[in-house]
Design brief:
The protein is α/β, with parallel strands linked by helices. It has a single domain (2-244), classed as Metallo-dependent phosphatases (Purple Acid Phosphatase, chain A, domain 2). 32% of the residues lie in helices and 23% in strands. The chain has 8 helices and 12 strands. The strands form 2 sheets. A 6-stranded mixed β-sheet has the order 3-2-1-11-12-9. A 6-stranded mixed β-sheet has the order 4-5-6-10-7-8, with helices on one face.
C-alpha cells in the first residue's frame, strides 16, 4: 500500500493541485495531518476536495478555531484576520465538517497521524525534548505529523534520538528507508505554507510495504495564489511570505 501524506494545506489550491499532479500514479490512498484551512484564499475548494479524496483526516489548530471549537484569541492578528475571513467563505455544512474532524493521534493502516505532538495536538514538535516525549506517547513505530510546517522529523532507536533530513534546494526528492527497529515521527512539510526556507509545496509518499519514505518538493504558481489573496482583501504578508518559504 502506498500513501500520499500531506499536511497544512491551508487553503492553497494552487499548491495542492501541484502536489496532486506531481504525485499522480504514486499512491493508493491520501492521508492528511490537519490544517486544511486558514491563511490562503481557497478554503471551500480545499474542503470539497478533502471530503471526496482523503481516506483519513485529522484536525489542526486552524481547523478548530475556524470551526469554533477553539478561540481565535490565541492567533496573531494576521491569522485572526484570515480565520474570520475564512469563516465567511464556508457553508454551514463545511463548518460542521471541520468541527467533526477527528482529533489525533489516529491509527491508519498500522501507522499513526497527529497534527502536533501525540500528547498535545497543539504542541510543536521541533526540539529533541518534545520529540522524546512524543515517542513515549506513540503506539506505533511510524507516525506522521504536521503543525510546524517543517519537512523532516525525528527518529528514536534505543536511547539514540536523531533528526531526519529533508529535500535539498533544487532537488525534487529525498528518500529514506525505514529500519524496523527504529521509531519515526515524520513531518511531510506544508503543502500550502512551507516555513523551512523552501517555497516549494511539500509532501511525502509512504510506501509501507517497501518501508520507504520519499520526501518530495514541487514548485507551484505562487503568483496566482498571491493574486487571489489580494483580491480577497487578505493581509498582503500572507502572499509575500509564500515566495520565501516563511
Amino acid at each position: 500500500m502506498r500513501f500520499l501524506i500531506i499536511s497544512d494545506i491551508h487553503a492553497n489550491l494552487e499548491a495542492l493541485d501541484a502536489v496532486l499532479s506531481d504525485a499522480e500514479g504514486q499512491y493508493d490512498q491520501i492521508v492528511c495531518c490537519g490544517d486544511l484551512v486558514g491563511y490562503n484564499p481557497d478554503p471551500a475548494a480545499v474542503l470539497e476536495w478533502t471530503g471526496k479524496h482523503c481516506t483519513a483526516v485529522i484536525r489542526g489548530n486552524h481547523d478548530k478555531a475556524i470551526a469554533g471549537v477553539d478561540s481565535l484569541e490565541w492567533f496573531n492578528p494576521v491569522a485572526q484576520a484570515s480565520a474570520r475571513w475564512t469563516q465567511q467563505q464556508l457553508s454551514g455544512d463545511q463548518l460542521t465538517y471541520l468541527k467533526n474532524l477527528d482529533k489525533g493521534p489516529l491509527t491508519v493502516e498500522g501507522f499513526e497521524i497527529v497534527h502536533g505532538a501525540p500528547f498535545d495536538e497543539d504542541e510543536y514538535v521541533v526540539t529533541a525534548d518534545v520529540a522524546a516525549e512524543s515517542f513515549a506517547a506513540l503506539h506505533r513505530m511510524v507516525a506522521f505529523f504536521g503543525h510546524s510546517h517543517l519537512q523532516g522529523g525525528f527518529f528514536e532507536k534505543g536511547r539514540r534520538l536523531g533528526q531526519i533530513g529533508r529535500v535539498r534546494a533544487a532537488e525534487p526528492e529525498y528518500a529514506m528507508e525505514l529500519d524496523p527497529d527504529t521509531m519515526y515521527m515524520i513531518n511531510p512539510g506544508s503543502v500550502g505554507q512551507p516555513r523551512d526556507g523552501d517555497p516549494r509545496a511539500a509532501y511525502v509518499i509512504y510506501e509501507k510495504d517497501m518501508r520507504l519514505v520519499r520526501f518530495r518538493r514541487v514548485e507551484y504558481p505562487i503568483e496566482a495564489t498571491c493574486r487571489k489573496i489580494r483580491s480577497a482583501g487578505l493581509p498582503d504578508v500572507l502572499g509575500l511570505r509564500l515566495f520565501h518559504g516563511q
